[in-house]
Amino acid sequence: MPMTEQATGAHHPQPRARNGGPSSASAENLTGAQSLIRSLEEVGADTVFGLPGGCILPAYDPLMDSTRVRHILVRHEQGAGHAATGYAQATGKVGVCMVTSGPGATNLVTPIADAAMDSVPLVAITGQVASAAIGTDAFQEADICGITMPITKHNFLVTRAEDIAHTIAEAFHIASTGRPGPVLVDIAKDALQAKTTFSWPPTMDLPGYRPVTKPHAKQIREAAKLITQARRPVLYVGGGVMKAGATAELKVLAELTGAPVTTTLMALGSFPDSHPLHVGMPGMHGSVTAVTALQKADLIVALGARFDDRVTGKLDSFAPFAKIVHADIDPAEIGKNRAADVPIVGDAREVIADLVQAVQAEHTDGNTGDYSAWWKDLNRWRETYPVGYDLPEDGSLSPQQVIQRIGELAPRGTIFAAGVGQHQMWASHFISYEQPATWLNSGGAGTMGYAVPAAMGAKAGMPDRAVWAIDGDGCFQMTNQELTTCALNNIPIKVAIINNGALGMVRQWQTLFYNQRYSNTVLHSGADTDGVPAKGTRVPDFVKLSEAMGCYAIRCEDPADLDKVIAEANAINDRPVVIDFIVHEDAMVWPMVAAGTSNDEVMAARGVRPDFGDNEDD
Description:
The protein has 618 residues and is an alpha/beta fold.
């Protein structure tokens, strides 16, 4: 993302000392490495996830003496990046990770791309070879700034010790203001070793970086008029509302207008799932009501959402009757995929607060929307096509039931992190999200291996909250080594492995679109000719593996044991807990809009296409 991008949620103060005011301006003679650690302390970074190596090693020496920054030693740099993301998503603060040059830095590429897609404030600090060696293909050299340029909001290469303090201040400011995103700071080893003069706060120089937060009043008034004139409006809420801290304002706007609310995968929890105005999640695996509401709407008010392909389906057939009000802090998103009739650039919290006032003014003038016929349709669709599932006929565990019971038995305020695939979609549907920042997942990038380290980061940032990772057996095998990190650092997360013996979502597509030819999706060594995992195979044995990493581990195969096992996990808080749930391998995610097709072709279940009648397209 370019520095001129005007991006999401401008409620973070500029970097200051931890007491809220500037620290002493008296200069100190320090090394660049000491300056780096002092700068992290002053911007309020209390947790750093990292792994040392040669080029970043100078920074690890003063880090040992810091009483204000906790370092958590991960087992893989990808884990450091996802943990920093989970920390940021759960706490609302900037996540920080620190690794060495070359392969250490390149192992951060996936979590950096993940944070960029989901607008997560992240500062990634990487060591670099000495400045004189840059460009010589030196040992463990990689041009990480060049590599990450397309996937960072901004990045810096620092070759002088005197530039470290102000660069760290600028990195945290850029990451956390406007549309949040990842910022990379690559520091040459000799800059860490050299002497410099440190004082705080430094002077930040960011010409051209001026995110627009206050929306234009004329556009707000025009949007309010459209809302009161519409017959079938929908509030289409994206992750930007969560990033802006605008959930309270959203509830006021929704209840003031009486319009239905649909929350995207990245916005779950920004509006209570149980609220009568909430019609569900839209998209490829969204609820029939949410998908159809957008298709039949005559007005869509998009708040901090980006009309991505998973929501729109085939773009040229998306919401054919709707005028579009599109509010986003990043002007590059407005009109990118769908032209906006009323574009609004601004922070979601400011936009929604101003919309509330403008709608109230319309009501005062006698202009109120009549959505009674619209709600009659919406309620009929909700009753006819609820999101649900059938229990397996053979008496085995249903993955949907497992996830639903985890949600129902979890303590209030539990944070759920999901991997990517079928279990992610089931967790989005069958757990009720009533509070913001209780649902963490990799939305834009769809990164397998996200759940365990993200849950670790969330628990490190919110130690008093229960944290469950809902993971698949495929995802779990990518980053489960961070359970060792959890065990050794008193980070007692709980992990549910939804173990169907296969790469479930890919297998579902092979079932539906590839004539049940299960090419390379069975994860166990033994398999029948039809691709079904052979019974009794345990390669690896997740219980033994988890126990070896210092966890309490349980296997659950019988539905009769489900509640007992979950309760047992909830009661253990002195170490990580892993439950290997052996579930039915043929369960599928429904509803579904097949990739590349119109949302009009949504399937409520296999072979079940909703019938909306012929009189609802007027």
